[in-house]
């Protein structure tokens, strides 16, 4: 190791100053020039490759060549319902029955409404509710998720159906971003070929299911870790605006052109305001009555009703909401049928619903390559929404959910359902909340709901053919309240961190203006940019001794944290890697007044006070607190050592404290001991203690030298 001369700067002849903070330390310390003398490491060996090989062998043995015992465990893992069914108590059955009927009542209007949102026949929404609930009850690990159609996924499905069913013409194209086009439909919002639309939606569901199964097989559930809560909030709020926009024409009874692609929401509102004079008054009246009834029921009647029924022992721990959505569609259907609203007043109705199930039909293989991009997006968004709900309620009720098995369950729901005219499904926040409040204990409630839905599909569904679309649009709009209220998150997040607020705002605006697929990409890119920005320009801190203790805090933040005379304590609060290593060096050298161009101590600068210049010249020791440096890569290590050499060249004595062993290994492999002179200490307090002894020794030597000269 290279040594340094014992001479210090001219202002280092005293340890303390009458107007400055004195070093005050007690206790033993550890300070050595070698890391191995500070700590006594075991014979550490990097076994990453061998461990990975063992894990692969173990996986192949357990999954591909399972023993009889492992086979039973694998069956239980694949069919989680066997676990809760074995432990099922008959006392739970009444709660699950009540919960199942309550959820089924919600699924009827929501399923039909979200099917229309996806530009599909209303009956397909009931198919989605039935098959997804049934399949998830067998394969899912959450006991409380309510699967079926939801607004966000239905809107994304509807965009795909629109894009592939409308005809692009030169007169209707509006050039926009990324060489794509905003396309308007030549029809009045109606689907020209419902069977082709169903083929598109079912093929999309099948492709989504395949993507989810592949994510499960390769254990890639971690991809949703890149979707932060801020991103999800902004994205779902943006999609809620798009869903609301899509329902406005049905609420006003307008027949408008449909737009697909970037800026479609702008063109849609231009079209709406241009045609407001054509509003169907009867349709608007139906919408107003439905919305008012729903709002009054949810905001005022429901809390009063729940409070009253709690007096009954049966409902003491069960909260069953008023099924106002079902009441709306029943009353709307009866009034529409008796007054013939469609024939007399041109009120748009659901029309043909039919009875029973469609004949099973496979996906269109030729469409799958076209739908792959949309399928990947929907698969990731579905998993993010479902897993956030599943983890929330699993934590609340103290049980575990398996992310990879959840992916298998979602994939099975979409693949099997696609053969029966189902579009992509996901877990609903509103229905899951009702599921929990209604006392649901297990997925037995979903099986009860499926039984109820089966009766509706086979016998009763066709009775709703006279139902006005305005009723379903009103139900969807009111159901969006929770998502729209997420706009408050922007203010809440902004109070905590401005960068996260930028992520929310950019995700929200890009989703609303550019459409859901671009919104997803923009949101992820901005989120990653914020992460990189925080690493690219991390915080740097100058520490001071806190209230004469062994604690060290930011000197500028706390009035009772004082910088120690002749010592600069520098902390870099990030990993040192190739793209921020130069910032580390510049921040370190600048903190002690070294000119970055010349590598020498800066002369008096008119912009700097005399006290600051004097402070820079009086510094003799540099402590680098490495406690926040969790990684040093090759490029970062080289620049780190270069900065230490520059400090040595300016006659500073350098200490590294709280250096992690793997970072020390990197620096040693880069020959830090040969390139520069540093002292490694176990703790920051040890470094300060060693400096105290060093300064005292130098001070005594100078006094002795002065006395000798006299």
From TrEMBL:
Task: Say yes or no: keyword DNA-binding present.
Answer: no
Task: Quote the Pfam families the UniProt record gives.
Answer: STAS, Sulfate_transp
Q: Where in the cell is it found?
A: Membrane
Membrane topology, as annotated, equals: Multi-pass membrane protein
Membrane spanning stretches: 116-139, 145-166, 196-222, 281-301, 322-339, 375-394, 406-423, 443-460, 467-484, 504-533
Taxonomically, which superkingdom? Eukaryota
- Biological process GO annotation list? transmembrane transport
- Bias category Low complexity: which stretches? 11-20
Chief location: membrane
Q: Which GO terms describe its cellular component?
A: membrane
Which UniProt keyword terms apply here? Membrane, Transmembrane, Transmembrane helix
Matches recorded under PROSITE patterns = STAS
Does Transmembrane helix count among this protein's keywords? yes
Per the record, which residues fall in region Disordered? 1-20
Q: Which residues form the STAS domain?
A: 557-691
Q: Which NCBIfam families match?
A: sulP
Name listed for the protein in its UniProt record: STAS domain-containing protein
Originating organism: Rotaria magnacalcarata
Taxonomy of origin reads: Eukaryota, Metazoa, Spiralia, Gnathifera, Rotifera
């Amino acid at each position: 190791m290279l040594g340094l001369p014992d001479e210090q700067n001219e202002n280092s002849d005293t340890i303390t100053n009458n107007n400055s903070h004195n070093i005050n330390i007690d206790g033993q310390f550890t300070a050595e020039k070698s890391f191995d003398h500070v700590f006594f490491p075991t014979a550490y060996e990097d076994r990453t490759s061998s461990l990975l090989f063992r894990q692969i062998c173990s996986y192949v043995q357990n999954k591909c060549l399972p023993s009889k015992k492992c086979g039973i465990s694998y069956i239980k893992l694949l069919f989680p319902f066997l676990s809760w069914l074995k432990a099922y108590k008959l006392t739970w059955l009444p709660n699950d029955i009540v919960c199942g009927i309550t959820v089924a009542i919600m699924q009827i209007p929501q399923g039909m409404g979200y099917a229309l949102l996806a530009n599909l026949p209303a009956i397909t929404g009931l198919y989605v509710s039935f098959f997804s609930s049934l399949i998830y009850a067998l394969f899912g690990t959450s006991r409380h998720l309510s699967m079926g159609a939801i607004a966000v996924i239905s809107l994304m499905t509807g965009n795909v159906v629109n894009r592939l069913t409308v005809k692009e013409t030169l007169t209707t194209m509006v050039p926009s971003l990324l060489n794509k086009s905003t396309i308007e439909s030549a029809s009045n919002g109606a689907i020209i070929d419902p069977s082709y639309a169903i083929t598109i939606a079912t093929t999309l569901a099948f492709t989504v299911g395949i993507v989810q199964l592949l994510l499960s097989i390769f254990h890639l559930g971690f991809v949703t870790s890149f979707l932060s809560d801020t991103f999800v909030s902004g994205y779902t709020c943006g999609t809620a605006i798009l869903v609301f926009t899509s329902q406005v024409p049905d609420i006003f009874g307008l027949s408008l052109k449909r737009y697909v692609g970037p800026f479609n929401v702008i063109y849609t509102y231009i079209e709406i305001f241009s045609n407001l004079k054509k509003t169907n008054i009867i349709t608007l009246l139906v919408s107003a009555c439905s919305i008012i009834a729903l709002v009054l029921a949810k905001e005022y009647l429901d809390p009063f009703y729940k409070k009253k029924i709690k007096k009954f022992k049966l409902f003491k721990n069960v909260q069953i909401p008023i099924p106002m959505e079902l009441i709306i569609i029943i009353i709307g259907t009866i009034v529409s049928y008796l007054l013939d609203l469609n024939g007399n007043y041109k009120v748009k109705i659901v029309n043909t619903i039919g009875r029973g199930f469609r004949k099973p039909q496979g996906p269109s293989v030729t469409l799958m390559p076209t739908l792959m991009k949309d399928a990947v997006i929907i698969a990731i968004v579905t998993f993010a929404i479902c897993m956030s709900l599943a983890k929330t309620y699993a934590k609340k009720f103290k049980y575990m959910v398996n992310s990879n098995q959840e992916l298998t369950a979602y994939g099975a729901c979409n693949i099997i359902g696609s053969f029966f005219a189902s579009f992509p499904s996901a877990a609903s926040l509103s229905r899951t909340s009702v599921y929990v409040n209604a006392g649901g204990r297990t997925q037995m409630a979903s099986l009860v709901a499926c039984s109820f839905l089966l009766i509706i599909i086979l016998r009763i569904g066709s009775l709703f053919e006279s139902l006005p679309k305005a009723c379903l649009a009103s139900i969807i709009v009111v159901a969006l309240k929770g998502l729209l209220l997420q706009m408050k998150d922007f203010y809440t997040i902004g109070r905590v961190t401005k960068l996260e607020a930028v992520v929310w705002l950019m995700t929200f605006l890009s989703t609303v203006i550019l459409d859901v697929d671009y919104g997803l990409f923009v949101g992820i890119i901005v989120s990653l940019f914020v992460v990189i920005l925080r690493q690219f320009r991390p915080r740097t801190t100058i520490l001071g001794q806190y209230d004469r203790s062994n604690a060290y805090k930011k000197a500028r933040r706390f009035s009772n944290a004082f910088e120690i005379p002749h010592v600069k304590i520098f902390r870099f609060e990030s990993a040192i890697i190739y793209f921020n290593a130069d910032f580390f060096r510049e921040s370190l050298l600048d903190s002690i007044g070294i000119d970055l161009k010349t590598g020498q101590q800066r002369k008096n600068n008119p912009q700097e006070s005399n006290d600051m210049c004097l402070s820079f010249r009086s510094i003799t020791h540099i402590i680098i607190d490495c406690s926040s440096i969790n990684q040093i890569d090759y490029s970062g290590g080289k620049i780190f050592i270069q900065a230490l050499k520059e400090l040595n060249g300016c006659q500073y004595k350098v200490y590294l404290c709280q250096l992690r062993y793997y970072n020390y290994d990197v620096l040693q492999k880069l020959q830090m001991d040969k390139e520069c002179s540093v002292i490694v200490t176990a703790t920051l307090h040890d470094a300060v203690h060693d400096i105290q002894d060093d300064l005292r020794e130098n001070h005594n030597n100078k006094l002795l030298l002065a006395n000798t000269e006299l």
